[in-house]
C-alpha cells in the first residue's frame, strides 16, 4: 500500500545504483535524508501526542505518521506545524481525503487498517454502532455526522388529467382535455441536509428546503365546455363546436421536508449505494401537501488524487414519483364569442411526471477528511436535473 513507500525508501539508494545514473542516485539519497530529518523533527515536536495516542503502535512502515493523521484534529500547535511540514505526496498521498462510504480499500477482510492507523486503529466516535468492530475488520469509515448545502434544479414533462373548470361564478365541472402541447414542470430548490451513520452500512438523513417552480400546462377545450350557458339551447351556436387553446403558466413557491436512508458499502476502489427518500412539499398553489418517493441506486469507483484527496465517479438510475392536484386560472382568446374577446376560467387538474425513471452520472470529491463537494446530472426520458453541493463531516 501507499505507506509502504516509507520503509522502501531505505532500499531505494541500493536499487537505484543498479539502474540509475549517479545524478539520480544522489537525488534519491538527498530525498531520503530530508525525509529522515523531517521525521526526527516530527518525533520531537509530537512526543506528547505519540505517547498519548500512539504508545501501542509499532514504529516503522509509516505507522507513527499514520497514527498522528488519525488524531489530526487533536494535535497541539507545535506538533501540527511539524506534521504539516511532512512531504505528504511521498508519505501518505491517499490520506488527505476520507471515503464517502465504508471501504476495505484493498485490504483483506479481517486485516487491520495499518496503512491509515498503524496497528489497531481506535474508533473514538459515538457512531456508527459497531464502528470499532468494523474498523478491526479492516474497513475505513467516514466521519459519522455530516451537514450539506445542496442546490437542486429539475425539469420534467408532465401528464395532465381530470381537468375541471369554472366559468364566472358557476360551479366547477369536469371537462374533456384535448391533446395540445407538452405540459412541463421546472423547479429550483435550495436544501440543507443533516446525516448520520447509524450503522456502518446505514446512513440516515433529514433535509429541509425552499423551492421555486413553474408549471406550464397547454390546454385545449371545446366551446360547449367554455360557454355552457350559450351552448345549452338548440340549435347549437357555431362557437360551441370550435376548439379553443391556451397555455396556463403557474408560478409557485413552497417548503420541503425529506427523510431518508442510504445503504452503502465499498470494496477495494468500488462502492455501491442505495438512497431512498420520502419528501413532503407544502406548495402555495396546491390543495394538499405533495408526497414524493425517490430511489436512486448507484455504483461507482474511487480514485486517489494524491494530496488533493479522493474522487469518486458513479453512475446509476433514479426513480421519482410525483402526483399532485394543481389549481389556477387561464385566459382563452375568444374573438367570436358574444361574451367578449377573452374568457377567463378557473381550473383544477391532476398532474403526474411522465417518466418515473432516468439515468444519473455524478462525481464526489473528498478534498479532506472533513470537506467534500458533489456534482450530479440526471438525464434520459423526459426528466433532466442537476444537483451540486458541499458537505462538512465531523
Please give a structural write-up.
- It is a single chain.
- The protein has 394 residues and is an alpha+beta fold.
- It has two domains: 4-95, no CATH class; 145-393.
- It is built from ten helices and 14 strands.
- The protein has helices at 4-8, 12-19, 22-45, 47-53, 63-70, 77-84, 88-91, 114-117, 131-136, 223-226, and strands at 145-167, 173-174, 184-199, 202-222, 243-267, 270-283, 290-295, 298-304, 310-321, 323-333, 342-353, 357-366, 371-379, 383-393.
- Strands 1, 2, 3, 4, 5, 6, 7, 8, 9, 10, 11, 12, 13 and 14 form a 14-stranded antiparallel β-sheet that branches.
- A hairpin with an 8-residue loop joins β10 and β11.
- The chain is rod-shaped, with a radius of gyration of 31 Å.
- It starts with a helix and ends with a strand.
- Mean pLDDT is 82; it is low at 1-31 and 87-96.
Amino acid at each position: 500500500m501507499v505507506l509502504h513507500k516509507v520503509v522502501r525508501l531505505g532500499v531505494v539508494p541500493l536499487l537505484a545504483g543498479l539502474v540509475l545514473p549517479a545524478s539520480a542516485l544522489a537525488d534519491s539519497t538527498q530525498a531520503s535524508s530530508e525525509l529522515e530529518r523531517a521525521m526526527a523533527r516530527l518525533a520531537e515536536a509530537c512526543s506528547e501526542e505519540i505517547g498519548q495516542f500512539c504508545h501501542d503502535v509499532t514504529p516503522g512502515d509509516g505507522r507513527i505518521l499514520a497514527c498522528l493523521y488519525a488524531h489530526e484534529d487533536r494535535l497541539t500547535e507545535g506538533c501540527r506545524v511539524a506534521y504539516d511540514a511532512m512531504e505528504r505526496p511521498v508519505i501518505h498521498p491517499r490520506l488527505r481525503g476520507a471515503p464517502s462510504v465504508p471501504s476495505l480499500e484493498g485490504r483483506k477482510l479481517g486485516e487491520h487498517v495499518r496503512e491509515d492507523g498503524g496497528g489497531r486503529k481506535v474508533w473514538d466516535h459515538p457512531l456508527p454502532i459497531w464502528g470499532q468492530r468494523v474498523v478491526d475488520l479492516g474497513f475505513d469509515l467516514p466521519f459519522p455526522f455530516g451537514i450539506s448545502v445542496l442546490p437542486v434544479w429539475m425539469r420534467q414533462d408532465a401528464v395532465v388529467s381530470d381537468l375541471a373548470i369554472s366559468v364566472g361564478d358557476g360551479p366547477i365541472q369536469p371537462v374533456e382535455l384535448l391533446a395540445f402541447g407538452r405540459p412541463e414542470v421546472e423547479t429550483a430548490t435550495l436544501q440543507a441536509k443533516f446525516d448520520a451513520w447509524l450503522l456502518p452500512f446505514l446512513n440516515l438523513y433529514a433535509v429541509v428546503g425552499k423551492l421555486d417552480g413553474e408549471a406550464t400546462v397547454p390546454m385545449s377545450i371545446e366551446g360547449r365546455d367554455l360557454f355552457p350557458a350559450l351552448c345549452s339551447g338548440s340549435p347549437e351556436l357555431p362557437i360551441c363546436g370550435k376548439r379553443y387553446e391556451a397555455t396556463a403558466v403557474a408560478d409557485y413557491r413552497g417548503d420541503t421536508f425529506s427523510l431518508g436512508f442510504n445503504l452503502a458499502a465499498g470494496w477495494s476502489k468500488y462502492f455501491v449505494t442505495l438512497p431512498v427518500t420520502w419528501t413532503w412539499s407544502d406548495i402555495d398553489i396546491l390543495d394538499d401537501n405533495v408526497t414524493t418517493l425517490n430511489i436512486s441506486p448507484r455504483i461507482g469507483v474511487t480514485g486517489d488524487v494524491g494530496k488533493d484527496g479522493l474522487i469518486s465517479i458513479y453512475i446509476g438510475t433514479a426513480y421519482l414519483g410525483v402526483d399532485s392536484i394543481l389549481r389556477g386560472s387561464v385566459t382563452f382568446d375568444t374573438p367570436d364569442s358574444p361574451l367578449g374577446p377573452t374568457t377567463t376560467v378557473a381550473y383544477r387538474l391532476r398532474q403526474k411526471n411522465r417518466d418515473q425513471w432516468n439515468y444519473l452520472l455524478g462525481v464526489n470529491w473528498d478534498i479532506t477528511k472533513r470537506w467534500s463537494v458533489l456534482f450530479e446530472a440526471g438525464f434520459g426520458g423526459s426528466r433532466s436535473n442537476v444537483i451540486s453541493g458541499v458537505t462538512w463531516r465531523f
